[in-house]
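User: My collaborator sent over this chain with a note saying "see what the structure looks like." That's all I know about it. Can you take a look?
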Amino acid sequence: MNDLIESFFHPVRYLLALRDRGAALAAAPRGIWLLFAAIAVAGSILFGASAAWVIPALGSPLASGVKLMAAAGIGWIVLGPLLLVWSRLPAVLCAHACLLAMVYGEAILEIAVLANFVAWRFAPPAVGVATAWNAFVVGASNALMAWAMVAQLKALGFPPRRMLALWFGVLNPVGAAAFWMLVPF
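Assistant: Without extra context I'll predict from the sequence alone. Here is the result:
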């Protein structure tokens, strides 16, 4: 439990300690990773579903949630190997930084789930307002995740500009393209 708290509230210190333990797969905090991955998957599905409550063009809530989760997953799957190659950091450290960044982003998205539910249930907004709100929330989540990645990897010597280049040049475009390719289905 202490590792989980340390990882979440002191991410740089935890990542440096993970590096100092050898950053080998044997040192991987598998339980924490499993929890973080579950939060990322469930949170993305829940947010995508809640967005469909107020933006009917997204289709059924379940389909919208699964599409959002799949698109985000595709973006991260493409980012991972490129991050490893470009940063030359151990996979354990990159994986941990990515998973923690996802959890931070999900925290923002889950606030929006509550707002979308209240709006859908009690005062459905105009589609334009709902679309703008959800786009803003995704942007805020994205900014927080980018900051988390930059802060963690900077402590390991990976320049922020390189992380941001990967973020805005790979993760965001791949995830967005995957989402829009999945929307018709």
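A starting point for your reply to your collaborator: The mean pLDDT is 94.
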